[in-house]
Amino acid sequence: MTHLIGATVDITERKHAEQTLSESETRFRTLVANIPGAIYRCAVDREWTMSYLSDAIESIVGYPASEFIANHTRSYASVIHPDDRQLVEEVTWASLQEHRPYVIEYRLVHANGTVRWVYEKGQGVFSSNGEVRCLDGAIFDVTERKQAEQALRESEERFSKAFRTSPHPIGITEVVTGRCVEVNDACLEAFGFRREEVIGNTTFLLGIWPKLEDRARVIERLKTGQPMRNMEFALKTKSGALRYFLASADLAELNGVLCVVTIANDITDRRLAEEALRISEERFAKAFQASPHPVVISELDSGLVVDANEAAWQLFGYRKDEVVGLTTLQIGLWPSAEERARYLDLLKRQGFIRNMEVRLRSKSGDIRQCLLSSELIELNGKQCSVTVGDDITESRRLEKALRLTQFSVDQAVEAIMWLDPKARVFNVNDAACRMLEYSREELLSMTVHDIDPNFPVERWANHWNYLKERRSLTFEARFWSRSGAVLETDVSVNYLLYEGKEYACMILRDIGERKRAEAELRRSHMFLRQVIDTDPNFIFAKGRDGRYVMANRSIADCYGTTVEDLIGKSDADFNRNVEEVEFFREKDLEVLDSLEERFIPQEKVTDAAGNTRWLQTVKRPLFNDEGQVYMVLGAATDITERKRMEEMLLQRERDLHAALQERERISQDLHDGILQSLYAVGLGLEACKPMIRQQPDQNVGKLTAMLNQGIGQLNHVMGEVRNFIAGLESHVIQGGDFPTALRNMIRTMCSSAAATSVVRIEGMAARQLSTEQALHIINIVREGLSNALRHSGARRITVSLRSLRRCVRLAIQDDGVGFDASLIQGVGHGLGNMAARAKKVRGQFALHSKPNEGTRIVLDLPKDTTYAHD
Hints:
The protein has 870 residues and is α+β, with helices and mostly antiparallel strands. The protein contains 29 helices and 30 strands. Helix 23 packs antiparallel against helix 24 (697-726), helix 26 packs parallel to helix 28 (771-792) and helix 28 (771-792) runs antiparallel to helix 29. Residues 865-870 have low confidence and may be disordered.
């Protein structure tokens, strides 16, 4: 062999591509392993046959991924909850037909039999001719989130019910302005306001505080941390009347505003009762002296007379100075010591005596038959008795005269009672005994005041004189039976004069059943009236002529009138919009003519202020006893606010769609322009490597290292551009998991650096950010990390997101070389970009750095935006 022919093929590019592919696969597996969910690729069939499924699926359903691949042991469809399978199919197929991604929340049945909630996001992979080839997506376990949401709903519902149904008035007002944020029904009832009059108004304008300094004193006390418990206040109701309350209050922050939560207890009735007690005691003292019955107060054991009224002196013929300092035995009031001893022994054993008949001696020596009633009291540390007497000597004589007629009277159906001029009952018939549930003997020892305690003793004399003048009276009265039942009666009283003696014959007719029926009818009517007036919906009834037969307060308020003025009039009397009135009339007649219910999804009504309100109404016919329709009954719900919110939501959706389209255009421009240019530069640098190898040996290593460094920086820049195009932000824009996106970005940027990253993100802080704020935070963190990784030489970088009292704070801290913050003006655009982004979301941006002391970037965002990550 004289010649050797050979050929050499440069496979550098192929080897580089293979290495790049291997590295890409390694990064993909690492990414999949770190994603808190299962990644899949499956066929588009009824079983969702899996061609790829990450191992994370086992933590979700309890089965390893290998059992699902090609339906080896079970299909993915088999673990979907039976009630959710149709939902999954319908949502997925609908998205595939429109060539758009799909998002579903549904339930899976775990291997242990429990039910797990999952969030799935995926999209179809289509061929060039538009046919779907497979589905790619991710599945995340959201069971804990769903359980937390359910627990939160139940907790809020329990609090709302407790707040609304509390029998004590509860109010929430702003500390600074006094504006009413919320009140419960008990509060509205106590002060006489309607809810719409209170909410949004201030306690000053409502006129609740008679003294404004009282509220200022309460606020200052609470601000100093002193508790306010059961302080008494006099407050004004809507009518201007004063009511007394025991109030307890605490400070609470609601939606960033410091408020006062006040719980009150209406003690007006107690105050009135205390005043009534004072008046009653004063009245008792007067009644004691003015009572026509003898009243004696004496020491229990000794019988020493402490006091007696004028009736007692007159009955027994003594003067007051004759008995002061003497006992009843010394006076000779009791015929014998044995009789007093028996009476005293009974009083001590029972504690009281009622209408016990005894014999007592007057100063002249006459024996008087008396009914005594006694109670034990303590005066000046000594046990005494209060004894009320009733001289029945004359009554006993009258009883004998009346026995002859008693039998015939007892047969009467109506209750009959005979009274003497001192209101004593000296005869009754059997019907009276049955009605009042007393025996004849018990009634004959009683007075009118015993069966009617509300009849003042001091008024009896005037009443008797009035009866004597008129000769007969008819009136309604209430009497108390023995069992405590209150009897409603129709009373007829006749004045009688027989043998020089005065009597009253009282006939009682029980009208309780009739009164109860009338009261029940009134209560029923008032209850129904209050129910429909409390309902915020429109409730009404109209006749065939279109005039209101019944209406609640909501309709009257809408038309700027009262319920009373509305009755008997039509909509045309209050609403000047002819089209609306004709529409109402048309629907009313449809119901009356068709005899069928009508549901009106939406209709307009112009209120008294000229504002248009939207209603959702149901109308149905009402029939009389003959089965004929005679009016239409309607109920309407005000949906004005809902329509406004729907319009706002549609506008926000249009704005978001436009923003996404603009972002897609920018991403396309970056891909087709900057990224391709950077790729071309990279190819040019790679082409320089063979040329460098032709240089002298001493320069090859240095030039190659410089070239590799440049290529690495270029690849880093291309990676950042790809990350932007790939759309971490788009994930957040579409309502994705912002904390996860932020953590993944930080982990990716720090994975190839020597610095250790620490990420602390509070869930509450993330939920309080709007979508726009979340996007700017991602870009600010990316810029801050990039600066720290490239320039600071930091060993540790900490990123935190916390919820403070009035703001959400983002902080980026490194332990690098730091710099003099006063010398950075005009150097680079990174810090300027971060400050500009902070300004766009009305945030406060601050930079703190000193040489050799590291750098700290702080961004404070206000808590007044709509939450986008709830």
